[in-house]
Amino acid sequence: MIERNKVYVKRKYTRGKMKTGNTSLVWKEKTKKALLQTVVMTVTETESIAPDGKIGHYIVMDAPDWVITVPVTGDSFLMVEQWRHGEQALSMEFPGGVIEKNEDPKAAAARELSEETGYTAGQLVELGCMNPNPALMSNHVHIYAAFDLKKTKPQQLDSDEYVNFMQIKQSDVFEQIGTKKYPHALMAAALALYRNYIENNKK
To answer: Which spans in the chain are helix H?
Structure first.
């Protein structure tokens, strides 16, 4: 049984704000210009100054923050399956998506869960926040666990979304993550944070 009122350490990250004791590794961004604007991100080029004064140019992709919800139903997860154009294959994932402008991440987690599955969570727990690829991306993904699920409405998908949802045993997800059926790396990250949460909140 999970003791959900137990204090859980939240990890918060803000771009460019992380403190480090090794200032000899810190670069300073001098200029930034947009190279390509798309519906999902802006590809930019930065001119940055190395600790020794050397100047370099780097590609950074700016995108809105994302959210992932790990919905827990007893010993199972509520998962969604959809086509991923980059992989050119179906992908089994946790519900998630783009956080809308001025939307609170927790509200986005609840909204995406509801839209993709029709379920509402009685409790949402923040698991963590991380950069999907610090070398290339400037955005962050916010990850929540959802408990006390209730089916309250039908799916409310966008016109170009084709999504199935189903319950899958947690043990099966842990065993198969990283296979062709579960190719999305951020789902593995969400699963790891969920496991940490459960381990830290065991009686």
So the answer is: 105-117, 170-176, 185-200
